[in-house]
Records
---
Amino acid sequence: MTSEGWGTPPVEPISQHYIVCGGNALAHRLILELVEHYEVPVVVLVADRARDHAPRIEQLDGVAAVVEYTSITDEALRAVSIGTARGLALVEGSDQENIHAALSAQNHNPDIRIVFRMFNQRLGENIERLLRNGAALSGSATAAPAFAAAALGRPNSVEIEGRYLHIAFDDAITSDRVCVVADQIDRQDLSRIRLLPEQQGDSAEFVRLASEFGDDGPVRPGGVRREPAAGGDSAAEREPGGTAALQVLRIEPREPIGWWRRVRWQLLDTMRFFTSARMRLVLLTALAAVLMAFGVLWYLNRDFGWTVYISLLDLAGAAQPDQLADIAAGTGTGGFWQRVAQVVITICGITFAPVATAIAVEVLGSGRRGQPRNPGAGTRDHVIVVGLGNVGTRVATQLHDLGVPVVCMERDPQARGIAAVRALGIPVVMGDGPFEEQLRRARLKHSRALVAVSGDDATNLEAALEARHGNPEVRVVVRLFDDDFAGHFYKTLDNAASRSVSYLAAPAFAAALMGREVRGTLSVLRHVLLIAELAVEDGSGLIGLNRHDLEDPGGVRVIAVHFARGSALQWGLPDRTRQLAPGDRIVVAATRSGLARLNTVALEE
């Protein structure tokens, strides 16, 4: 490859296309979203056609061209026809590289839609203000809630104007559910799941009852419901498997952690400073001696406050001893046994002082030296996060914010997440030894879950299997790109979950590239449900449509509407015939293809 770059530029001039810069897993998924669901021409710019996902990207139908350049330069942008493109997605490279590429692309085409990946979300918001038509997204921030929720064995949620949407399964589904989002759920065969299945109208149940109990319906004597005939097609026979539904909560479901458990964790964590049996014996003996001497002083003086005062002074070595003249004059502190007790407390204080100093130096000095803290002997009921890349760092941070104890594992001492978790006081197990030894140091035996989120499927699976071998009861959550791999994972292990960062994030990037706002993603095992908000603008194809028009083609459920003339969001709009008007906003739960269809309708004029 030459320094100027080479590849397969479009043979014919191309326009109104979308450019994806990157050859990683997110780029791969994003291209699939664009060509399969939005059906738009895509030109791909990669750094090396022989590495990462680039060879597979070249084989995708609908990709107009794959162009190879070592970096995103002005020449590279001209090679992919940036001047006539409708959108540009920057999903690989550092924050600085993506910012530079976004600003360069805007200079070539001021009207182009630019979506760029940023780990630093605050910086991304500021860069958005510099672009005429841009959006900064974080793939790790989009996917991390799903991993954190899976580790705790609960659904993640998406906030919509003070209410929280989440997925409930089977027995957890309540009567006030918004809609059924999946059925035929079989963990042994994930391909059977139907996402947003065709739903019957509100009167369907009454029609069914009328057919069985009406004047002409097949009614048993006494009005008893007729049982389905043998071999019939009852609902249970037609739709086997589990069910998932979308529900609304007024408060976000949080991990129920009592204050006593937090205090217990803190007390147990301090035990890491007393790992030596000899040190514990010396300190316990000294403590017992201090308590006995304290009891003697209290007995002799009968004043608890004064006893505490003089004992603390003795421990610090600051008490004033009796003088011979005071004893002769009868003005001493009072007796032989009191002086013995004070001497004992002072000597024991000499024992405690260096230990307290060593602990203070260890706590303060380790942070200044930039060294991560090791998990203590008292670490219990924690979550182990394997891999401190972008995703692992965000997962560890979210769990820590929930009050859940976290221990991280990382083999690369230069990983960007080490400094971030160290600032939060999260223990980190470093080293590139075997997983068995690292998991032992991370106190796997006492953990509740393990989340493996490194960038390599094989490494994540190895960590999960080693964790299950060391602790059969631990819950494992694994980051996997390959769907077939994930299917075998679900069939083999119980109390386990699998998530794909690119699968969760790619729909949000694709929708943003089309100018749509995705408020969040909810996972249904390996499938993803999008919660999106659409504005009905002048000239939009959504004008005049009602709920039937939006939902009947499938893949979309309208869960809330904000009418231009109203003041609040209306949940579960009962009037399915009311038409949308300019200024209205709708919140929908949609599959990837369903949201793509809505985008196509919205662009029609």
Note: The longest strand covers residues 527-535.
---
Amino acid sequence: MSLYLDYLAEIESRKTELGLAPKPIDSAELLSEIIAQIKDTGNEHREESLKFFIYNTLPGTTSAAGVKAAFLKEIITGQETVAEISVEFAFELLSHMKGGPSIAALLDLALGDNAELATQAATVLKTQVFLYDADTARLQDAFKAGNAVAKDILESYANAEFFTKLPEVQEKIEVVTYIAGVGDISTDLLSPGHQSHSRADRELHGQCMITPEAQQEIVALQEQHPGKKVMLVAEKGTMGVGSSRMSGVNNVALWAGEQASPYVPFINIAPVVAGTNGIAPIFLTTVDVTGGIGLDLKNWVKKVDADGNTVTDANGDPVLEEAYSVATGTVLTIDTKAKKLFNGGDELADISSAFTPQKMEFMKAGGSYAVTFGKKLQTFAAETLGVDAPAVYAQSKEISHEGQGLTAVEKIFNRNAVGVASDAPLHAGSDVRVKVNIVGSQDTTGPMTCQELEAMAASTISTSVDGAFQSGCHTASVWDNKAKANTPKLMAFMNAFGVITARDPKGVYHSMTDVIHKVLNDITIDDRAIIIGGDSHTRMSKGVAFGADSGTVAIALATGESAMPIPESVKVTFKGNMAGHMDFRDIVHATQAQMLKQFDGENVFQGRIIEVHIGTLLADQAFTFTDWSAEMKAKASICISNNETLIESIELAKSRIQIMIDKGMENEAGMLGGLIKLADERIAGIKSGEQPALAPDDNAKYYAEVEIDLDAIAEPMIADPDVNNEDVSKRYTHDVIRPVSYYDGKPVDLGFVGSCMVHKGDMQIIAQMFRNLEKQNGAIEFKAPLVVAPPTYNIVDELKAEGDWDILAKYSGFVFDDTNPKEAARTKYDNIMYLERPGCNLCMGNQEKAEPGDTVIATSTRLFQGRVVADASDKKGESLLGSTPLVVLSTVLGRFPTMDEYKSAVEGIDLTRFTPPTEEMTTKYDAAVPVKRV
């Protein structure tokens, strides 16, 4: 049976079972068969083969794109004749293929002997930006050899005509509102985790956005309001919290955006999204990737009394009142020139933050990728020609305040800034390109990152990236058919691209399912590094890490750079003493609660960097704080450590990198060995005193400063989704933090210790608790199931070597077996402990879940509705978050413990301890010291 007939069978199956269009073609073999049928004028499949070739073949560096470009070149040169594809149409099709084989074909024609074709090819090339070293080298060599066409193309590139000749952004954009939800809208609503396996199939994945009913309501609004865009709104909340999710923006664009190219199916761009409290930072970056618009509406404001004081409700929360309505079906006008939002002639809001010069460029270019590559191409062309590049793009926004010191993040950005004009130190608000040191890709977004790399014609990792890792943790729990189909293909692509991969395509080393954030925390060996990762919990405790969409990860892998503004910072310090029975997780939760109280309910962390002065807490333990900062809605977090602690953390990272090398995970470029060398250099710099641990200047300026009182934390603290709050906008926000005594014996249906929020110390705490409980009670019986998932294999190996694994296994009714992994997710749990494979497990919600309606107590980070536990018909599922000892004890008791029970269970156990630094964690400001830039 031919590949084409197999494809037709798949088309019929998709149409009959799912109501979907044919899947876009990425296979060279299938497209070759289709081309053979096009050449055969009498073939019964010729007409539909033409349509597949023209309208249904993926561009970029897919193998199909290579075959398509070659055939179009043959048509252009007259080697093949297809009546329906003229030479002009063939050039047009090449112009929509973005890069890779299409650029190679166009360069062949432009630098060839046929003058007429060379001119036509040059005209198309002048519109292209996705050129790589091999492409630019050909142009450079031809120019030096005196080729006039190459000179003409380079002159066009130097003037950035690929950008300047694009249409300007519309001055007036009419939108019709659609309330996608009340309260914070998580990206899980737009792209559910349990549907992650389908993200690379854009049409199929689009079926899971919100609900089928919502999708039809959006379609109905489009039919009622032709010519207007549907704007999805988070009413009384923030749009896109929790995760970057390129797939979430893709889904919104699919239903409410515009098609990027008539010849590429289901790739839409330019959606419009909005929130009462704006757009979550990393989600907004994803919107920029597509050239979309993200609005901060501020349509609900705090109510004040006659004296100007905020009015609060019975719970002490501010009362909100509506400033203007954005109810579904409201027609509004976005004025991109005035940067205002209007309802008819009434001005509703200043939306200038959505229309900075940089964001306007993204909109004009159809996305941020084209701007990034365009700037690089312009610089290359100007340097090759020996001319100054004209100022076409908006200048990098460079803000410097004379006499003002730098925060920690400002120092990192200054150190890594690329192409900055000014010699003065840059402060928050500056918008710059920066070198990216470490890049991470995880397995449920990885297939999309591969697609993005193919679409931008990238074939190998940038040599300027110090370290990169592709994980297998998000699909670690169940080795089902979806994982078997997607994961090996992903690992093979990334391994060939030059990324260290959790799974070896050649089968040399044992497959790892280590949680990506833990691995990235280990391979980050410099506190001055910038890290980009395909997950919102890319929050390392060394350097500054930004969770990002799959596209931003792809651009970082391909170019070693990223463009972003320098964020403002909030300084967090501590005072007092941590009670002996408290765990550091309780301090983390209390930080959120005390911050909200200090600022009358305003989340000053949102969209900013949390600079936490942690002092002597090692990177593993400090990661508990930085990881949680994603749920604080912070853009990122930075830990300020003293010299001795930083050296110890880097030494630990070196040992774990060496374990990866010993397992056979090193690649041909010697990436892991290079990281150890960089680690040694960093340690030497600290010890010599020439490059001490990162610290802010003593006169740095912060948006706010928060001091956490450790003496005020007397009970384990719980982050509560507050599922029954009458105000739906206040559910699932991570802002409700309560002491354990509030729950007063509340039943617990399941406990979970795992994901990225735990470290080796948590596993040791479980073992110590079991010894305590054995001593007190003689035996341990679970009255609720307990799921334990260590974050990495290294931890499992260390626990086995040190003896703690034995007692964990002793009380486990299930212990993972990599030789026989689970092939189906659990739907029911017994009252036993499940010792699971390292990975994300319940936190991800895409494979394993608690039983519907359960009350779960977990160390996880997610409170999203339906993530860890779905609702039952008679009871809402709730995932309450707490410390490891609290989770373990709650499952032994089958309920929340009393304080006496809790103290007894943890007596004598060395919990994750924290002592505030006694010295100021700052450096003296010296205006004369220049800032090193890349």
Note: The first helix runs from residue 3 to 18.
---
Amino acid sequence: MAKLWQRFVNGEQTDEDPDSVILRSWHRCRENRLDFQQVARNDLLPANLLQQRVEENEELLQAAKDVLPFLIRYLKGREFIVLLCDHDGYVLKALGHPTFLSKAQTVALSPGANWREEAKGTNAIGTALSERQAVKVLGWEHYVRENHFLNCWAAPIKDARGELLGVLDISGACGVTDERLCELVLMGTRMIEQNLHVNELQNSYRFCSAGIKMASQMLRDGFVTINNRGEITEINDAGVYMLGKRREDVLGRPAAEVFESKTNVSFYGERRKLPVSESGTPLQSSFNQVKDEKGDFLGAVGVLQPTLQQKEQTFWLGRSEETKKTFQNGAKAASTLSTVLIQGESGTGKEVMARYVHQMSPRHRGPFVALNCAAIPQTLIESELFGYADGSFTGAKKGGQPGKFEMAQNGTIFLDEVGDMPHNVQATLLRVLQEKEIYRIGDTKTRKVNARIIAATNQDLKKLVDEGRFRLDLYYRLKVVTLNIPPLRERSEDILDLVPYFVHKACTEQGRSAMAVSDALYKRLLAYDWPGNIRELQNCVESMVALAEGNVLGEDDLPLEVAGATMAEDAGSLLEKQTRQVILEALDKTKGKIAPAARMLGIGRTTLYRKMEEYKIKG
């Protein structure tokens, strides 16, 4: 039969033709003017480029990791090798009998070599890629004579969408054949494709889970997911904060127990409200069922919302990385027993952070008592802090009056604008910090106090120390843990969360119907520096709501000082910016390697390449 090959390469006519797949391949080789005697030049990858190919095809190699040894064991020591190639025909992996591995290397049938038809003529790997189907190429059916000592069986590997990923090949010596090898290579291909599909499903699940978690953290409401056993499977930072619990104390626990419901959570209706209360703090909650295509119950998702008054007092809105980091640092501070100093410009939300630290701390069930040191006359601040005894001064309440420290017993006392505290009161406060006891004014009896101190200031305390206006020893006692609250201009993304909340709040207080906010107005708000920070933004929104004529707030509703700010360039899509930044960080951590970066992000390599092209990220 080898005479058929001889007549074809000599250009002779023959009535006997080999298999049509082989014949089509021979014609392609002739059109490409390949030398039928030997390969003129092998396409071999250097070690670094081969390693790059291996990394780019990590998903394929992972799916084939257990399949290749299984096929070798099936062949039971016979002189065969099993090869895995990528979609360009480059051999990535070769396993098999040592003797035949050596023989195969004489024709570069080894890792790093390209076996496409254009390079090596008719062969099982290249022809399977060209025909996109399983093929066998035996001995003389190879177009190039130097490969006639080979018998090969190969099948293409495709993903769930039918895209060609690579080729699985079994090769042995000419004359050694087995009809079951066609079935074996097809079986191996199916096993690899199934593994790829399972891996893709797992990656999709991880990506969806990570996406849900990331999206939930952008919500200003608490976000909770519950499985069909009534256990909490996910909760965002806002939800943990509102419940006044720790994340590890919530995940995996029955929802009825976490929400302090007296009955189990069943969700027989499409919607179910749960009673939620933590230390007397009322929260609104609402959950919806999640069902599969058959209508079977999978779980529930829902939101937690503080009452309007509670939101105003304790809840901080914002999706920016700066805000997330601030909350993370606040949570770390809450886990300690140390004194905390919060620094930030006026109007940035220092008291909100203080309340957050309190509610995340072991003292969250105790009282939170706040005192603005700048708002109390110097003659009264000491009695406000430490209280007074019966008859200690004219007009004193009969029986005396406890001070803020006593009122904060087993809880937290928040000293706002501590830089304005009189020097004599600073000395007394220092002694309280050291001794954990107080004297009421006019009293000789000491009273033990157990209250955590959180202080806040918009001033440079170190500068006040240098000027002799603040005690150095008290300064170091207060700044054991320091939290810096960034100004709103450094976390402008938070405006996208703060504005809707302030609009809703103002509409409710002013008895107006709900209002929307135009994109043009958001653009102007994002362009302004907000020297008065969140307090100024809130006042601005209240003014716009009060004076607006329609139900959509626009640029014309802006107060003059804000309207005069320079128009911002197009803010663009924040989500796209965040996605691009996450991809850049993953590539940076993996030193530009695509496969590890894709694995870190929980997406496929193809998806990552598409995203890189979409966001104009160079590999």
Note: Residues 262-272, 277-281, 308-314, 566-573 have pLDDT under 50 and may be disordered.
---
Amino acid sequence: MDGTETGWGRPAEPAPRWRALLDRARHGGRGEEPEETPQQPETPPQQQWNQQQQPNRGSAAVDRRPFNPLDPRQAAFDGRQQGQQPQPGGFERRAPEPPAERAVPQRPINPLDPRWQRGREPEQQHSFFEPAPRTPQQQPAQPPAREYGAPTGYPQQNNGYPPPGNGYQPPPANGYAPPAGAYGAQAAAYPQAPVAPPPVPPQAAPPQVAPVRQPAAQPAPVSPAPAAARIEWRQSRTEDGMDRAVSIMRRKLGKPRVLAFANPKGGVHKTTATVLAAATIGSVRGRGVLAWDDNELRGTLGLRAGSARHARTIKHLLADLMRIESLHGDALLQELDAYLRHASDGSYDVLAGEENPRFAQRLDQGTVRRVMDLLRRTHDVICVDTGNNVESVNWQTVMRSADQLVITTVPREDAAFTADWMLDVLEESGMGDMVSNAVTLISCPSAGHLPLLEDFKKHFATRTRAVAVVPYDPALEVGSSIEYGDLQQETRQAWLRAASTMLEPFAE
């Protein structure tokens, strides 16, 4: 007979559940029942820095499985609580599963809250959540870096519940920890309130020190990039001096100027100096320059200067002087030109002197002045060869009418002595200003070294405004007609400097 029927041929009533469980326990039904996989406790969420993990108040409900007094697992669980080993085939109570936790927002900690101050013990050591007071200079300790999931080394909070299977009583059904001993048992779990560091007394501000200005760093010199090669023409010092001399002679002179070349000694290059000065100034200015031979004893200026296109001299001019003085403008120029001689290049004019020595008696002071005034009406620069007689009327009249005195000499003692004596005579005659403004012109009669040249330069520099030296030139040695173009380059440059020195006080 199976268990579904009774002996009376009618179906039996179903066996109660406790019998099925008893049969299963008797025949080893525990091994046939599929084992339940234990659930791993959920790992509590990672704590944030310097915050406390609060117990989860929203725990799930405790497992309410029915209690079976015949279950061997229940007997085994009761035996462990009484310190006995579980019997084979007995029931064992399953440990309650940890409730699921719910994230609760963390409350900020107020270090000045008196509730935290009361729970703190003076002798308690500083923990991780309560660092030791530090000086203002000490840097706060940084937490060690660790990987996610690694152990932190600090006591883990389990919300007040023991881990499953450790033999402790399960928590109450409401999910809250018992109030007794909460502050004592969980003192280590709650962080102590940090103590504010003692106030630092204010320090006196250091005295203000004016910043020292450092000298500006000089930039390092940068070497210029090499420029492309080019040809550049530059004037030499000599040419620069020549340009200045030419510019002076080309300037306006304010009024016609008379240059008197004087020295009572014969053979000191008075005539040569008069001709070359007129030729030099005329070559620069182009026109308006005249050389006059005022020598009362047969002068030779007319023979050495200009072209002899006629034989007229100052004697013929004096004969028609009254008629010529009444003319003006171009008529005057055309009428006077018939009594003058001209240089071969046309740079200057020449008024020749009379070769008859008896004619000098007619050159009185009034006549010389009338001739001088006539020449000033037609020319800008008049160079006068004064002759050798300082006592003659014409010599003295020219000296008083001159604007510039030029003393001609050569580096010889007799010539220098005569020139020095003449300066004394002029100073005694009341012409000291003319002497101090005079120019000494030293002509070299020969080539080579002249021993007295430097001594003469030093001596006349103390008595006159300037000293000019002109070199020897072979074109002047023969004593014939003087051609300015035949002179050497060095001689022309020396005469340019000398002539500019003569006209420099009058150049505007």
Note: The mean pLDDT is 74.
